[in-house]
Design goal:
alpha/beta, TIM Barrel, two-stranded parallel sheet, 12 strands, globular
């Protein structure tokens, strides 16, 4: 197999996104509190970042956005992201967590914001829309709507495609309760179930609220269940599957993201109703995915971070050749999120080779 004879690549596309840390390093932009809560500043910064990418790295065809979320085909300069904060951070702030911006990278919240607290004290999900934070973000949407030359992309959305985005209930439970959530699955499963159901209901309420306010028809939902690969098949079916299926019933077809090696949960995933695409880490077996889901099932996959950061072009080529062979001609998107520690020359060389233009 030669470099100019990649296997079964007709159905393969490439998508690139670029991190805040990268933009902070090359442009000196700052992602402070105002960036997230001043729509004008947000828009100015985002346009500046995208213009830089389009001017200096046009061959990457990259979008400045959160990893695996926004898509360039659905972006233009007239859009303004309102809030534009990771979904589980927004929900955490509604529970009293402090927002912690990082001027040179991704924001966060105070950790384990609900650890040690009573489940009985969780607010009713339908009351969340009256929280001061949601009121502020909702008012910002209305302000943008008053200017007919602009369009508001509300929280829990990242482009104009109609694809909502939430963090999965297990991933969010880990964020809110800490690492002890995995022990609690064994010692206090009822508590974990109740927290995860609350998270699921809160996401449904908030996505519907912002979709209605912004006039968006929800077409699908990206569920970032980053932690789901950390539990066994039995725990996945018991704890994760019910909330994932509810999201699919209540909001729309699901695109599931699982960061790490996920071979052990693929059988369980195949049983999930309304699962319509997978977004996987590069250590998951594509041959196993295709054997279970078929060739027409949309899949996106990212090369392992250690390969992107290594600077070893031969290793990236070897991973790509194996992924394409295992994919067996199925519908595939190879995506990556550009970080400042990735050797850019290697990324360019790999992408040019993989697209058959280098």
């Amino acid at each position: 197999m030669t470099d100019n004879n990649l296997p079964e690549r007709e159905n393969v596309q490439f998508e690139a996104s670029v991190s805040k840390a990268f933009m902070a390093q090359v442009l000196g932009v700052t992602f402070d509190h105002a960036y997230y809560f001043d729509p004008s500043l947000r828009s100015e910064t985002d346009i500046k970042c995208q213009a830089y990418l389009d001017s200096f790295y046009p061959e990457l065809d990259a979008l400045y956005t959160e990893s695996n979320l926004g898509r360039k085909a659905y972006w233009d300069k007239k859009q303004i992201l309102i809030g534009g904060i990771q979904p589980n951070l927004i929900v955490g702030m509604l529970l009293g967590a402090d927002f912690i911006p990082a001027p040179g990278g991704d924001a966060d919240i105070t950790p384990a914001c609900w650890a040690g607290k009573s489940i009985k004290d969780l607010p009713q999900p339908e009351t969340l829309v009256a929280h001061p934070l949601i009121r502020v973000l909702s008012q910002q949407i209305r302000m943008i709507q008053a200017d007919r030359s602009l369009s508001a992309i509300p929280p829990f959305f990242w482009d104009a495609s109609g694809r909502a985005a939430v963090h999965g209930s297990l991933t969010t439970a880990q964020k809110f309760l800490g690492e002890g959530v995995f022990i609690d699955m064994l010692l206090d499963p009822d508590r974990v179930h109740r927290v995860m159901r609350w998270i699921c209901e809160a996401n449904i309420v908030l996505v519907r609220h912002f979709a209605a306010l912004a006039g968006i028809k929800i077409k699908s939902v990206h569920v970032g269940e980053c932690s789901s690969c950390m539990v066994g098949t039995g725990e996945w079916e018991t704890f994760v599957s019910p909330t994932l299926e509810r999201i699919g019933r209540e909001l729309g077809p699901v695109r599931l993201h699982s960061c790490g090696p996920s071979d052990h949960i693929l059988d369980a995933l195949r049983k999930v109703e309304n699962l319509r695409s997978l977004d996987l880490g590069g250590e998951t077996s594509l041959s196993q995915v295709r054997g279970l889901f078929g060739h027409d099932f949309p899949v996106s996959i990212a090369p392992p971070v250690k390969l992107l950061a290594s600077g070893n072009l031969d290793d990236l080529k070897a991973w790509t050749l194996k992924a394409l062979a295992d994919n067996q001609g199925g519908r595939l998107v190879i995506l990556y999120h550009l970080e400042p520690q990735y050797p850019l020359a290697t990324i360019r060389a790999w992408l040019g080779w993989a697209k058959g233009i280098g």
